[in-house]
Here is the input.
Amino acid sequence: MNIQHDITIALTKGRILKEALPLLASVGIEPQEDLDTSRKLIVKSTVPGVSLVILRGSDVATYVRHGAADLGVAGKDMLLEAGGAGIYEALDLKIAPCRLMTAGPEGLGGDDASTRRVRVATKFVNVARAHYAKKGLHADLIKLYGSMELAPLMGLADEIVDIVDTGKTLAENGMAPRELIADISSRLIVNKASMRTRHRSVRIIVDALADAVTSKTSA
Here is the structure.
């Protein structure tokens, strides 16, 4: 991989990182250090000029938008929440699939909310606001960052908007998924300025990953 510019790729911690690393490795981009033990914030890769930075999911789009990172791997949920200004969504990597949904206490239903205000706990406040507005409902949004299932159990909210994978955590807490807002997977995003000024280097990485995704999904 002949990269002519210094390129920084921002990766999301957790499940996305675990699934993104093999995909990057398949095109020759691997961290030079063990990410589980290294304390470095920026890690060089096996491709000269390409560095990796590991961030919280909510920060990846911000770093790419402002040009601190040229490319990034982030969940579609975070991109929906943050908006697309300054970012080019180059590729669906088809990793870390899940669903962004509303959920609430089992058996109570959700459509009775049409006659009242609904209290919603979520970290996806922009997505939730748009979803309930589309339904003609006024949502009192309560921003939380973790343990969303606890909010209805404690009487803080009527329902939640959150990522649902297997639904096991919801079920164990007496809750059930209600409405699908969006199917989610991880996307390769590019800073729009980097796409212009470092076009050849960025294009090499994007095209290589596109080929890897196609090979993986057709296998």
User: Anything to note?
Assistant: The chain has two domains: 7-96+185-218, 98-183. The longest helix spans residues 199-218. The radius of gyration is 19 Å. Residues 209 and 215 are 10 Å apart (CA to CA).
